[in-house]
Known about the structure:
Layout: H1 2-35, E1 41-43, H2 49-61, E2 65-69, E3 77-81, H3 89-96, H4 103-125, H5 137-140, H6 142-145, H7 149-156, H8 168-171, H9 177-195
Helix pairs in contact: 1-2
Amino acid sequence: TPEQAARMKKLQEQDKRQKVEFRKRMEQEVSQFIQATGEPRRRFQPMNKIERSILHDVAEVAGLTSFSFGDDEDSRYVMVFKKEFAPSDEELEAYRRGEEWDPARAEERRRLRELAAQQEEAELESGPAPPGPPNDYKDKYRHLIGSDAAKAAARTMEANKAYGCVPVANKRDTRSIEEAMNEIRAKKRLRQAEDE
């Protein structure tokens, strides 16, 4: 109906006006942020998906870096960073976990990691580790079986011709398929004749 169409058009125009106003407001906030010298990053209030996309666009046009953080749709917010203060991967991870970024704590963590890496490197350079507890069952029973018992046992094993080990010469069947089939049929006939 014409009334519904008119109402729909009015709603669309109102929505468009709100988006334009929101964009102007964001442009003002972003320009204030750019002029604020002591502010490397700014966190905006949680906003819906459309508003976030508008803010990301405004930030990109202004030459800033922006990211969205937060788990559910109601609490997602945008953070805008000046290019010279672009966040490190560690900083982004902290925000994704919902933590506040603390550069001093991050530096401490980095130093600890470096120290651990240096210690590991020093251990590797110092040579093999001192012998620890045996982790192989053969080591555990070495005092009983000796270190070369298995090799000695392998050497003494001889093929039992009556069982298991068949010489290759005995394995080879030089008959053709027809000869083998004829032999099988002859044995069958012989069995049937014996049964009768």
